Amino acid sequence: MLKNTKCQPYLKKVPWLCFHTLLQQEVTGVLHQAGSYGKAVVMPDLGDLALLVKDEGYQGEFFEPNSVASLALAIEVLVTNEAHRLNIAKANYKAATAYPMEKITNMYLNSFDKIINIKVPQTKVVLEPATAE
Predict the structure, then answer these.
(1) What is the reported pTM?
(2) Of all residues in the chain, what percent carry a pLDDT higher than 90?
């Protein structure tokens, strides 16, 4: 997350953000923070991540990882279509403020449990939900 860094003032000023990382865990926290600022996003289509993001109500322009052309097209869509960008920004704000972080964490853990148990059915893995302290 970008808390307590020099990045937060910029989040208020930019109309959209691009996540170029190929690590799912880096995208989810920053996506939530970007959504809390009402920002549209461009992010890599990392398979299960895209499904989780959409399940939570977030929207964005997805690009194929390792494809410069796909990334350029996703950015172009947000830059050239303001109405579309604003709709995505509003949806992301709504998604980011709909649930407390604990509930979001538990939703991810439940989804990950399902994915793990589908991909590795002989071993039942259960992730423990987070608790508020």
Answers:
(1) 0.66
(2) 31
43 belongs to a structural domain: yes
**80 lies in which domain range?**
8-98
Average pLDDT over residues 31-59: 85
Pair (63, 116) in one structural domain: no
Regarding whether 73 and 17 lie in a shared domain, the answer is: yes
**What phi and psi values does residue 128 have, to the nearest 5 degrees?**
-80, 130
Q: How many CB atoms lie within 10 A of CB 2?
A: 14
Model pLDDT for residues 64-102, shown as the tens digit of each residue: 988 999 999 999 999 999 999 999 999 999 998 887 778
